[in-house]
């Protein structure tokens, strides 16, 4: 079985009881569980429900040889003009502030307010996606910040990466200590990323921390963003991307390569097919022992 946020959700007590019972029944019959989200809540659930039968796995993806995509200066100029700004922040993650589905949207909004209070002429690009879109619209209006925001509909992955190439800094989720698919795509693009860090146990399972700017509070998010914007303003967008974004791309190619994902699965499935129910216990930290790929 592959966990992709479901383990945390279905053990939280919030999910429909019938769905939760069916999911837990499937877990009880599974020989192995691949855990892709390494936040503390998910790791606690994995160990409690699947002790000896789970392993950390990179989010499955294949490196796109077309990335990184070039900056779309026409798009950038349009977004700057629309928001009346001199720099741009892109928040592509879903807008969720619900107790059981929190992406840290409130932290992002508070950070945006702090940037404006500091005098930064920053525009915010948001995706009309998530459970809290209406709440975000109301908050922006209440704070008189709505004119600095460009709303867009959900887009294909390549379009999102082209936007990442054209903004100063990308924000991901700030609630969970985990790295999701949007962070991976941002690092693949080589754009400056600010997001919450990985949990201590998660870092042990990975073996090396992802190389992006970490922040959890509005003050830290704003500070990290101003660092990027400062270089972008003085040395140019490409210099900021190279300085803050290239290390993340290098880490992704080296430690999150699709070959690592493939090899982990081959090794574990070989054990399961060879030994069946007598297969040795899984090694949750097998990822951390995989060689680098370039």
CATH hierarchy class name of the largest domain: Alpha Beta
Strand sequence of the main sheet, in spatial order? Answer: 8-7-4-9-10-11
Helix content: 40-55%
Low-confidence stretches: none
Gyration radius, rounded: 20 Å
The structure class reads alpha/beta
Strand fraction = 5-15%
Oligomer: single chain
> Total strand count, please?
11
Biggest sheet, in brief? 6 strands, parallel
**Which sequence of SSEs, written as H and E, runs from N to C?**
EHHEHEHEEEHEHEHEHEHEHHH
CATH topology of the largest domain: Rossmann fold
**N→C terminal distance:** 28 Å
Mean of pLDDT: 93
Q: Determine the CATH superfamily of the largest domain.
A: Glycogen Phosphorylase B
- The number of helical segments is 12
Number of domains: 2
């Amino acid at each position: 079985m592959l966990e992709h946020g479901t383990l945390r959700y279905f053990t939280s007590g919030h999910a429909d009881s019938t769905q939760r019972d069916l999911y837990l029944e499937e877990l009880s019959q599974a020989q192995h569980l691949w855990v892709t989200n390494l936040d503390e809540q998910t790791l606690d659930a994995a160990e409690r429900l699947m002790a000896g039968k789970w392993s950390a796995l990179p989010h499955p993806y294949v490196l796109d040889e077309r990335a990184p995509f070039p900056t779309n200066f026409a798009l950038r100029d349009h977004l700057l003009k629309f928001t009346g700004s001199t720099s741009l922040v892109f928040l592509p993650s879903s807008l969720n502030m619900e107790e059981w589905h929190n992406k840290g949207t409130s932290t992002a909004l508070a950070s945006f307010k702090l940037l404006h209070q500091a005098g930064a002429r920053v525009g915010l690009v948001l995706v009309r996606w998530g459970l809290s879109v209406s709440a975000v619209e109301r908050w922006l209006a209440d704070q008189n910040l709505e004119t600095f925001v460009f709303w867009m509909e959900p887009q294909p992955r390549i379009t999102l990466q082209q936007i990442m190439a054209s903004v100063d800094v990308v924000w991901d989720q700030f609630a969970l200590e985990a790295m999701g698919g949007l962070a991976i795509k941002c690092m693949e693009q080589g754009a400056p990323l600010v997001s919450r860090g990985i949990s201590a146990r998660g870092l042990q399972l990975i073996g090396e921390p992802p190389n992006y700017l970490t922040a959890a509070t509005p003050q830290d998010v704003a500070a990290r963003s101003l660092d990027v914007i400062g270089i972008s303003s003085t040395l140019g967008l490409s210099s900021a991307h190279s300085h803050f974004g290239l290390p993340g791309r290098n880490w992704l190619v080296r430690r999150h390569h699709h070959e690592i994902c493939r090899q982990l699965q081959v090794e574990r499935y070989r054990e399961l097919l060879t030994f069946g129910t007598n297969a040795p216990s899984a090694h949750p930290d097998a990822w951390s022992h995989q060689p680098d790929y370039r």
